[in-house]
Amino acid sequence: MKFIHAADIHLDSPLHRLEVYEGAPVEVIRGASRRAFENLIGLALAEAVDFVLIAGDLFDGEWRDYNTGLFFVRQMRRLDAAGIPVFVVAGNHDAAGQVTGGLPYPGNVVLFGHQSAQTRVLEGLRVAVHGRSFGRPAETENLAAGYPEPVPGFFNVGLLHTSVTGREGHAPYAPCSVGDLTGKGYDYWALGHVHQFEQVTLDPPVVFPGCIQGRHIREAGVKGCVLVRVDEGGALDVALRPLDVVRWVVLTVDVAGCGSREACLDRLQAVLPGVLAEHAPLPVVVRVTFVGACVAHGVLAADPEAWTQAVRAAALAVGGEGVWVEKVRLATRPEGAGSAADGGGPMGELADYLAALRADEGALADLGERLADVWRKLPPELRREGEVVRPDDPEGLRVLLDEAEALLLRRLREERS
Predict the structure, then answer these.
(1) How many other C-beta atoms can be found within 10 angstroms of the C-beta atom of residue 385?
(2) Quick check: 290 and 326 in contact, CB under 8 A?
(3) Residue 229 forms beta bridges with which residues?
């Protein structure tokens, strides 16, 4: 037996921020979630799977128009023609009332209700699928606790949208413990909500397949579904299968010792071909962070916008239209940077203060709260250009501190000279 487990499709949700980047293929960006979903359907047909599971957030909220629903119906019809049933639960983005839009679905689609957990069986395969949809976007009930006992003699699957015990960056919806899941006696748990692939347990498999298409830099890396094979003895093989059509990549370039801007760009161009080869043939969207102590630090920090455009030009020279630099972050420092190098005084005090702040998790969280409050008060047009400031993201806050330190030190040196 073979089946596909997918989740967090967010059909017709746009890729964030790319549409404002000069040279980005707008049509590819707009259609990325649809193309990834077509890849999902193509994989199901090519592998001749016995059924498909979709563990929530099939849609991204209310449809802008009926085209989203009609596209989904067309894709389901392809599976229906091949005799492949599809089992769906709704998650926080497509909770009850937002999924169907009143459109009838082909007969192969089973959408679980939200009042209580239900069971659907495939008699020929001896498979029982248990599922329950969200009745509201912010579902705080432990839905797993109400799932039924396994059907004796059947391969039992639990289909659920949940944060389990909580995952960083994801709201704690339908919380439950791992024991709540494994204690049910099911043979496989098909989860959704977490956008990174994760196999929570191996026996029985409790799996997050991740989203099928990354939409921003926090959804970097390979995105797809899992293909599950079950042999005659009941042993399971769970394999991540890529479906994405555009891939987000976080790239750190060490420019330690570089004495010029050109030398830093050379370092970037030396590592970029390997990144492109790793993700070929997909186009990649890259966030580049430069790190290390170097003489060139002052030149790079002096004009961040000019440096960003130079990095984009260098990337285009290597990868052409197959690479777009979404953002450039500067986390370099002057060689020998610190209070001693600056002879004490304001620059030394600033460097010492920021170093202490980076190392203090509590102080970082407090800073994050203050910055988040300021961010919320910015005009909408400025908020659209930047990323959300998150108090629970210490690494992101440290990057902000690195950028602020480079800017402040440059200005202090200018004042001193």
Answers:
(1) 9
(2) no
(3) 2, 237
| pLDDT, mean of residues 61-82 | 89
Question: Which of the four pLDDT bands, split at 50, 70 and 90, describes residue 401?
Answer: confident
Dihedral angle over CA of 176, 178, 184, 187, nearest 10: 130
Tokens 């047009």, located at residue: 381
**Contacting residues for 300 by C-beta, under 8 A, at least 6 apart:** 261, 264, 290, 307, 330, 332, 406
CA 99 – CA 79 distance, rounded (Å): 19
DSSP assignment of 227-270 equals EEEE-TT--EEEEEEE--SSEEEEEEEE-TT--SHHHHHHHHHH
The two three-digit tokens of residue 379, written as one number? 């005009």
- Segment among 117-121, 169-173, 337-341 with least mean pLDDT: 337-341
pLDDT at 339: 40
Query: How do 224-230 and 236-242 pair as beta strands?
Result: antiparallel
| pLDDT per residue as tens digits for the range 246-264 | 999 999 999 999 999 999 9
CB-based contact 23:285 (threshold 8 Å): no
Which amino acid appears at position 369 of this protein?
A: E
pTM: 0.83
Q: Which residue has the tokens 């909500």?
A: 193
Angle at CA of residue 36, ends 87 and 308, nearest 5° = 140
Locate 215 and state its tokens.
């939409």
Alpha carbons 341 and 345: distance in angstroms, whole number: 11
Determine which of 56-60, 145-149, 175-179, 182-186 has the lowest per-residue pLDDT on average. Answer: 56-60
Residue 273 makes CB contacts below 8 A (sequence gap 6+) with 318, 319
Model pLDDT for residues 189-206, shown as the tens digit of each residue? 999 999 999 999 999 999
The one-letter amino acid code at 161 reads H
Comparing 117 with 337, which gets the higher pLDDT?
Answer: 117
CA distances from 263 to 254, 267, 307, 334 (A): 11, 6, 13, 15
Euclidean distance between CA atoms 321 and 17, whole angstroms: 17
